[in-house]
Amino acid sequence: MRRLAARGAAGDAGEVVAPAADGWDSAQARSPSPWRLIGLCAIWDTGVFLPSAAWNGVSSGVERRRLNEAKKVSRRMPLSPRISHPPRKQSLESSYIFYTLSQGGWEMLSSVQEIQLKRFEVTRPRGLGNKERGRVPRMARQPAPPWVHAAFLFCLLGLGGAIEIPMDPSIQNELTQPPTITKQSVKDHIVDPRDNILIECEAKGNPAPSFHWTRNSRFFNIAKDPRVSMRRRSGTLVIDFRSGGRPEEYEGEYQCFARNKFGTALSNRIRLQVSKSPLWPKENLDPVVVQEGAPLTLQCNPPPGLPSPVIFWMSSSMEPIAQDKRVSQGHNGDLYFSNVMLQDMQTDYSCNARFHFTHTIQQKNPFTLKVLTNHPYNDSSLRNHPDMYSARGVAERTPSFMYPQGTASSQMVLRGMDLLLECIASGVPTPDIAWYKKGGDLPSDKAKFENFNKALRITNVSEEDSGEYFCLASNKMGSIRHTISVRVKAAPYWLDEPKNLILAPGEDGRLVCRANGNPKPTVQWMVNGEPLQSAPPNPNREVAGDTIIFRDTQISSRAVYQCNTSNEHGYLLANAFVSVLDVPPRMLSPRNQLIRVILYNRTRLDCPFFGSPIPTLRWFKNGQGSNLDGGNYHVYENGSLEIKMIRKEDQGIYTCVATNILGKAENQVRLEVKDPTRIYRMPEDQVAKRGTTVQLECRVKHDPSLKLTVSWLKDDEPLYIGNRMKREDDSLTIFGVAERDQGSYTCVASTELDQDLAKAYLTVLADQATPTNRLAALPKGRPDRPRDLELTDLAERSVRLTWIPGDDNNSPITDYVVQFEEDQFQPGVWHDHSKYPGSVNSAVLRLSPYVNYQFRVIAINEVGSSHPSLPSERYRTSGAPPESNPGDVKGEGTRKNNMEITWTPMNATSAFGPNLRYIVKWRRRETREAWNNVTVWGSRYVVGQTPVYVPYEIRVQAENDFGKGPEPESVIGYSGEDYPRAAPTEVKVRVMNSTAISLQWNRVYSDTVQGQLREYRAYYWRESSLLKNLWVSQKRQQASFPGDRLRGVVSRLFPYSNYKLEMVVVNGRGDGPRSETKEFTTPEGVPSAPRRFRVRQPNLETINLEWDHPEHPNGIMLGYTLKYVAFNGTKVGKQIVENFSPNQTKFTVQRTDPVSRYRFTLSARTQVGSGEAVTEESPAPPNEAYTNNQADIATQGWFIGLMCAIALLVLILLIVCFIKRSRGGKYPVREKKDVPLGPEDPKEEDGSFDYSDEDNKPLQGSQTSLDGTIKQQESDDSLVDYGEGGEGQFNEDGSFIGQYTVKKDKDETEGNESSEATSPVNAIYSLA
């Protein structure tokens, strides 16, 4: 449900809004700020304390003015002791010195007065918005020595009361105001010569200012020049050239002056320049002759334009020049060729300049290239050759820099600008460019590479970007580097720009003008455009460097001050006026507002006001004489009155009265309290069959003076009420329910101030057939919600809750869960209270004090949980003091001079009363001093001005309106840490081996750590390698040694290198100072593994090996060791060892066995020994798999047995065939063959067929395959070819019975593998 809060401000006072219930803090954050800064000087025995705080009793302009007048009195008259206690019923918080007015005049109090302060509210000096709240530390009460009075007067000099003028147009137009520049042209104003010149200067002020100009620091008489005019009610200059004239005649430096009777404001010095686009000089360019592969620079040298033109290269036919890492344009406009190739002759090269204002492009005469080459044919196929240069006969060269020249250069850049570093190199092949920063990394968030990595751009340069950068150009022939030293300078930039100062008569103030730059800028003050030194003396004004202090300002002090801060790179000019106003109080909001709010909500009554001196605001109710502040009321500095919890008795008329020495003003606000809107009977979830009628109830209770509106939503969208629906005041009826009616229904009850809503879900069941088996098990479901909750036996700390169980839906209820909701801390959020067995329906609930309870019950069975029951009526328990204190109390510093005390806030059930707050106490642990305390409403408090890292005793005690909680236990916390002040001493380095060192150092004193000692940390970096021409990364690395240790080991170092090391102490704040730099050298170590070890086998006779040098030699390389061995399956040959020189990176192995494979192990070695080895194997030969398989099968037992069986079968077939042959001869054929015989077939004249030895070819020509089977050749004959399987029979003399048949088709024969003629057993039976 929403709650209503009235929001009022200077511009929208009286407007009524309805923020969300949880949005009060955000509404409060929009509270308008007071129109002032208030400060008090507190003095105690250690010095002067100036809190940025406001006091609700002595913070008005009246007291401020009295203090200033008291200063004047104190200068001329002796001080008589007098003590005055302001009539404030508040507790003592600090001790202050004040002045009081007696019948004899103003007198300073001579002793420390006890001023009762309720709270301090930290304020910002200017601007709108709420102020952070904090408390001023309690100060000791001491008598004031004589020097205190002088110190107090000095403290008053720092008070700057600033008044903000509201944006109300009536006030803006009524109040006088010195001029303010609102619009002006840029400092470097470049104009188009074809247009009229416009130099802008706009200003505001009351009365309206007049304008005049200077040109080149001399008065510019506009009336004498007919071309120059000034716009009406403006200082903008217009120079018209329609009637002739040259714009160049008006170039120079202009400055605008805006003046009224209260002062003069100045514009920047505007440098007017006319854009120029000069022509390119005429020149005849001879062809450029260059050798292929040589570097070349084509210079552009564009004419100097204003602003500088944009340069680009094209051919004379207006085709753009393709650029890549070989050919590219430099930042100066020149075209660079890292190496010239023959194809570069195919076009010419022309430099073009595009000018911004004239939008013209000027083209330089084109360059023509003539390339001398050893390979005159421009074969395009060579462009993609892997070694294009050697293919064209171009000699390879190491890189050299074309721009910049030499090995080092320097560059200066201004802060906030872009830094562009450029390195363009020549070489064959084309070099690659890489960028590095010495001693650190490139700023990844600001750095980007351009022009094919030849340029490094760093945007928005700052001081930390200074240092040494270097570019590394490398190709396969070598590398070179160029170092660029970057210096970052800065034009002046604001640290504290002076702001307009509006004071009341007699108030003090100051103008601050702080700027930084490199070099440090100088500050010059001016008043009304004249140097301050030549201005008339003002006794109320004092200049202290970058600050002007005003004391006891009067109406005559009004003026406009200019601060000009400059160095060799630029200047800044700022105007700030001092205006003194004497305005009686006035109200800014509409009069007699009516604000209606909801009961028990928090609200705020706004009363924006204005006046000078700053008025004091007080609130009264129903004309009563007591000021409203404290308890349920809180008055903000801006005049708003907050009522923390609205009650019925808060209804009435509230009057706010603003008072200063010039008068008073008042306004009234009428507050009406309304009852909240509540849905006391909510719609319930329902399950209905299609076609039935459903009624959803929604009964509402509301304030009768407010108009109630009840609406319905379906699935969170507005519900359309059709013919089947009927909406009444307290229900929604749906006739003939259909499937489309299923969904969630929300009842929304709203008034113009608040609303409440309730939701239910409607489930529609489709028609179902009646089950035929009545004995089937009934389906189980979740239980129905409990109903009719009732509260009885009401007591202070307990209540009995009774409910009626719902249907268990064929599954017994096992448990009931009772939940509660309270409407103060977390309204609408339900919490589990207790759990009870399913056999009970009544329970006594234990309650906490001052909680507005509401209960509901959930039933649980084995299927699941029911929907929650409808909530019970509310029951509020009486309040009591808290019985516990917040937990998890901690004290930790977030800065070096503070300590943040935090705790876990207590919830609603442990608050026990309204206005839960926390009393925070702290004191130094060692000193056992008196406790400091403050009352906090949140869950944190920051103690300021603490020593560095000292222990504190901390206590946090809960308190509400009924009293305090139990006395809390002390918790030890620590104030903030500062950076350590000392570095480890006597750092000793001992080299353990080539990659590790041991460190030893002396412990630092504990008082220099200034915090908790986290670790000792070693920063080390590789300065160089002992190997010449080996570039190393100097990136800093670190090794941590946690705890209070005195020795440690640093490992993973690079051998054979020079290192530097520094030690620091680390606490929670960070690193301390660095120790003396130690240098050490690691001895030679073993090298890393050779890189990219490749094994290639071009044929079966040789194997080629190639490798690259190790990435880390780690010493002087003595060579490489290659070990290789041949292997075939499980057989391994003898290992062979080869040693190579350090420069050899190739080797060829002659194979002795074409079947075996080889395993190669390669390592590099130094004097220390061999390093990490890399192992590769030669690729497998194509027939290795077959060979291995064959060798393995031949040794298997089953294969030998199979071969023996086949041999036996063959032997039996041979015997059978021999017997058949011995009985054979000439066999008569009864009929002709189906297929005639050829002429070569042997036959007798009587038609007989000679069965000769040629018929036995299947036995002679049979072959044994690899798998051991017998395969017949296509031309072989056999016995089975001349018969039909088992039908063939022999008679007693061995002749065939039946017709002699022709040989069958080969495919048919092979398909009849089961023929009996092929069986030796059947053949033997036929012989029997």
TrEMBL record:
<feature type="domain" description="Ig-like">
    <location>
        <begin position="676"/>
        <end position="758"/>
    </location>
</feature>
<dbReference type="InterPro" id="IPR003598">
    <property type="entry name" value="Ig_sub2"/>
</dbReference>
<dbReference type="InterPro" id="IPR013783">
    <property type="entry name" value="Ig-like_fold"/>
</dbReference>
<dbReference type="InterPro" id="IPR003961">
    <property type="entry name" value="FN3_dom"/>
</dbReference>
<feature type="region of interest" description="Disordered">
    <location>
        <begin position="1229"/>
        <end position="1328"/>
    </location>
</feature>
<keyword id="KW-1015">Disulfide bond</keyword>
<feature type="compositionally biased region" description="Basic and acidic residues">
    <location>
        <begin position="1071"/>
        <end position="1081"/>
    </location>
</feature>
<dbReference type="InterPro" id="IPR026966">
    <property type="entry name" value="Neurofascin/L1/NrCAM_C"/>
</dbReference>
<feature type="region of interest" description="Disordered">
    <location>
        <begin position="868"/>
        <end position="894"/>
    </location>
</feature>
<dbReference type="GO" id="GO:0007411">
    <property type="term" value="P:axon guidance"/>
</dbReference>
<keyword id="KW-0325">Glycoprotein</keyword>
<dbReference type="GO" id="GO:0030424">
    <property type="term" value="C:axon"/>
</dbReference>
<dbReference type="GO" id="GO:0098632">
    <property type="term" value="F:cell-cell adhesion mediator activity"/>
</dbReference>
<keyword id="KW-0732">Signal</keyword>
<dbReference type="InterPro" id="IPR036179">
    <property type="entry name" value="Ig-like_dom_sf"/>
</dbReference>
<dbReference type="InterPro" id="IPR026965">
    <property type="entry name" value="NFASC_Ig-like"/>
</dbReference>
<dbReference type="Pfam" id="PF07679">
    <property type="entry name" value="I-set"/>
</dbReference>
<dbReference type="GO" id="GO:0005886">
    <property type="term" value="C:plasma membrane"/>
</dbReference>
<keyword id="KW-0677">Repeat</keyword>
<dbReference type="Pfam" id="PF00041">
    <property type="entry name" value="fn3"/>
</dbReference>
<feature type="domain" description="Ig-like">
    <location>
        <begin position="492"/>
        <end position="579"/>
    </location>
</feature>
<dbReference type="InterPro" id="IPR013098">
    <property type="entry name" value="Ig_I-set"/>
</dbReference>
<keyword id="KW-0597">Phosphoprotein</keyword>
<feature type="domain" description="Fibronectin type-III">
    <location>
        <begin position="983"/>
        <end position="1085"/>
    </location>
</feature>
<keyword id="KW-0130">Cell adhesion</keyword>
<feature type="domain" description="Ig-like">
    <location>
        <begin position="281"/>
        <end position="368"/>
    </location>
</feature>
<dbReference type="GO" id="GO:0007420">
    <property type="term" value="P:brain development"/>
</dbReference>
<feature type="domain" description="Fibronectin type-III">
    <location>
        <begin position="1089"/>
        <end position="1185"/>
    </location>
</feature>
<dbReference type="InterPro" id="IPR003599">
    <property type="entry name" value="Ig_sub"/>
</dbReference>
<feature type="domain" description="Fibronectin type-III">
    <location>
        <begin position="885"/>
        <end position="978"/>
    </location>
</feature>
<keyword id="KW-1003">Cell membrane</keyword>
<feature type="transmembrane region" description="Helical">
    <location>
        <begin position="1198"/>
        <end position="1219"/>
    </location>
</feature>
<feature type="domain" description="Ig-like">
    <location>
        <begin position="584"/>
        <end position="672"/>
    </location>
</feature>
<dbReference type="InterPro" id="IPR036116">
    <property type="entry name" value="FN3_sf"/>
</dbReference>
<protein>
    <submittedName>
        <fullName>Neurofascin isoform X20</fullName>
    </submittedName>
</protein>
<feature type="compositionally biased region" description="Acidic residues">
    <location>
        <begin position="1242"/>
        <end position="1253"/>
    </location>
</feature>
<keyword id="KW-1133">Transmembrane helix</keyword>
<comment type="similarity">
    <text>Belongs to the immunoglobulin superfamily. L1/neurofascin/NgCAM family.</text>
</comment>
<feature type="domain" description="Ig-like">
    <location>
        <begin position="179"/>
        <end position="275"/>
    </location>
</feature>
<feature type="region of interest" description="Disordered">
    <location>
        <begin position="1070"/>
        <end position="1089"/>
    </location>
</feature>
<keyword id="KW-0812">Transmembrane</keyword>
<feature type="compositionally biased region" description="Polar residues">
    <location>
        <begin position="1259"/>
        <end position="1272"/>
    </location>
</feature>
